[in-house]
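Title: Comparing notes on inverse folding

I've been comparing how different people in this forum approach sequence design from structure. To keep things fair, I'm posting one structure and asking everyone to reply with a full sequence. Here's the target:
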């Protein structure tokens, strides 16, 4: 945009307009009384207002002053240009805005939960807990504050008239997904105890070309942290991906050559880890709905898998009596040995410690830095009628705490020849029930695993799931084991039992 400030002093645009009062003159000569131009009278004196020529220096100074005034008027004009650079949000301002928004959201949530507590203290504790949880160093001791645990409400539905096999709880604890020895997947509301949605897995099953026919039943379920995807295995080599909000089928993942036994999402991501009887562990990316890679090392079928936020997975190798931690980015694995018989289930307490159970009836507490268990409780669920250890069927933990729950298989009085046959047939499976769900306190520093309570529940314990704070324990109960029909307890019911756990708060001490 050009400015009159840059015009030359002698240009036309810089000259001042004529005074309207001077319109009555002609070429600088005063008018006579008759209106005609004439000469100046002799009586008049010569002065500054005379029609004589103006000196150049004076004329130039006046013109420059006039130009400066013109520029001031131009900047005050509404047509003047103004910059919008100050209105744009910088990356620093964006980070500050998002941090303030995050803090206000935490304040709102803490205000709703803890109205009687100091808000600032709650926010500080929340931020510290989330940071420690993100780096895998959060530790909370709640088992020592446990006051009581009693069976509460029962969830049952006619579509799940068969034994319940698998449970998965949403991250916020509001919804529970359950699968049974039927083709239906049910979504429960934990607050009302009612069915929110249901899905049929049978129409989406794709069988390999083996010619064998079988019934669909949901063996394992897992849900992503953001509740965007739900993965399930229905007894075959394929993995079905569903939307947990609407229970609509999304895709079927193919790759395993034998039945899938375990599924888990890496915390905070859409990376899915699967374990199967084909002795492999596979990694899937659900953002692209694609297979990533396979991990090999186990000598027999993999029976259980678990993972937290790090790019690592832990698996139980069944009859090869080994546990393996897979370091995915480093492309290496750590091998642990300790059980005398098949290892059927494993759960991570945190990134440094985990707990396992097997057919030998033992529960072992491990450190990732040691190849042998730091603590082992033999015959954790006692002996059966035939002096055979009650096998450990299911393990659940409250992550980053010291609270552990286990269930086991009880040997009823059975002929010795049948026991021997069953013992061989079930060499790849865990057991189910001794009539109790036992709660344990783990203490890695003291190398101790101590039982604190036992909750009586009749039936095969096929699955366990804690909510985030450990105040609810959901127990999948059935008349049969989730992987077979070797025994049947007619007195038991096929349902989900909600165990209410009362934990004394720190304020109450």
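Reply #1:
Here's my take.
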């Amino acid at each position: 945009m050009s400015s009159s400030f840059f015009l030359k002093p002698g240009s036309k645009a810089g000259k001042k307009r004529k005074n309207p009062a001077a319109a009555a003159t002609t070429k600088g000569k005063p008018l006579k009384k008759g209106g005609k131009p004439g000469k100046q009278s002799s009586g008049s004196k010569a002065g500054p207002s005379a029609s004589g020529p103006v000196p150049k220096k004076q004329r130039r100074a006046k013109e420059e002053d006039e130009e400066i005034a013109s520029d001031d008027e131009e900047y005050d004009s509404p047509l003047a240009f103004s910059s919008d650079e100050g209105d744009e949000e910088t990356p620093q301002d964006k980070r500050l805005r998002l941090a303030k928004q995050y803090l206000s959201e935490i304040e709102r949530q803490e205000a709703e939960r803890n109205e009687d507590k100091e808000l600032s203290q709650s926010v500080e504790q929340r931020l510290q807990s989330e940071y420690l949880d993100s780096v895998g160093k959060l530790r909370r001791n709640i088992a020592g504050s446990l006051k009581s645990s009693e069976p509460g409400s029962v969830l049952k539905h006619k579509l799940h008239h068969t034994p319940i096999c698998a449970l998965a709880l949403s991250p916020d604890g509001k919804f529970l997904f359950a699968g049974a020895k039927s083709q239906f997947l049910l979504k429960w509301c934990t607050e009302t105890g009612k069915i929110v949605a249901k899905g049929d897995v049978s129409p989406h099953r794709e069988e390999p070309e083996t010619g064998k026919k079988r019934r669909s039943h949901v063996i394992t379920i897992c849900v992503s942290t953001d509740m965007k995807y739900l993965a399930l295995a229905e007894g075959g080599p394929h993995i079905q991906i569903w939307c947990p909000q609407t229970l609509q089928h999304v895709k079927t993942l193919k790759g395993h050559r034998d039945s899938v036994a375990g599924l888990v999402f890496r915390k905070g991501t859409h990376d899915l880890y699967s374990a199967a009887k084909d002795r492999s562990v596979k990694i899937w990316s659900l953002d692209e709905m694609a297979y990533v890679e396979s991990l090999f090392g186990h000598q027999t079928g993999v029976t259980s898998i678990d993972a937290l936020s790090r790019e690592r997975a832990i698996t139980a190798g069944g009859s090869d009596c080994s546990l393996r931690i897979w370091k995915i980015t480093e492309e290496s694995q750590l091998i642990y040995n300790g059980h005398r018989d098949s290892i059927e289930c494993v759960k991570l307490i945190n990134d440094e410690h985990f707990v396992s159970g097997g057919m030998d009836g033992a529960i072992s507490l491990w450190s990732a830095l040691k190849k042998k268990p730091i603590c082992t409780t033999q015959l954790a669920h006692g002996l059966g009628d035939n002096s055979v250890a009650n096998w450990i069927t299911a393990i659940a933990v409250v992550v980053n705490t010291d609270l552990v729950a286990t269930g086991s298989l009880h040997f009823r009085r059975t002929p010795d020849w049948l026991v021997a046959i069953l013992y061989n047939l079930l060499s790849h499976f865990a057991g189910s029930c001794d009539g109790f769900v036992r709660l344990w306190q783990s203490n890695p520093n003291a190398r101790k695993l101590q039982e604190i309570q036992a909750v009586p529940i009749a039936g095969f314990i096929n699955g366990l799931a804690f909510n985030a704070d450990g105040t609810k324990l959901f127990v999948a109960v059935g008349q049969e084991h989730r992987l077979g029909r070797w025994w049947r307890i007619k007195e038991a019911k096929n349902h989900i039992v909600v165990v209410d756990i009362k934990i004394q708060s720190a304020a109450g001490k």
